Amino acid sequence: MTDQTVTRADLSEAVYQEVGLSRNESADLVESVLSEIADTLTSGETVKISSFGSFSVRQKGERVGRNPKTGEEVPILPRKVLVFRASNVLKNRINGEAGGEDDTDDGFSGADNGGAPQQQPDTPPPMGSGTPYRPGS
User: Fold this and answer.
1) Domain range holding 87?
2) 3-class SS of residue 68
3) Model confidence over 55-106: pLDDT tens digits?
4) Whole-number Å distance between alpha carbons of 91 and 97
5) Considering the entire predicted model, what is its pTM?
6) Beta 47-49 vs 73-76: how paired, if at all?
């Protein structure tokens, strides 16, 4: 794994190489796409990119936290957080698994079976299911 970060300039260069636009047009295109994503998220909408994943904003409520150094209780104010859920296609690609080219993926696991979690082979059953775990059976 490399410790390199992909920047806007890297994305612009990739667009320049692949599409053949000028470097300035490529930079403007990348900036325009990123700006549209940011504006959409700011307005509270979800951004779903097929075969990549979904970005959404989630509201977190107020809660009491604890300062780990002093142990003092501190209120944590309500805030919005950005959430990214990778699509199964992207997850499979990252894990080097084949067969991840299905464009119908909506970025949420279990969506094809009514939202129920999918049981993986050779994994223990859920806690409290009463089913003993027997690897390889």
Assistant:
1) 50-97
2) coil
3) 999 999 999 999 999 999 999 999 999 999 999 999 999 999 876 454 444 4
4) 9
5) 0.62
6) unpaired
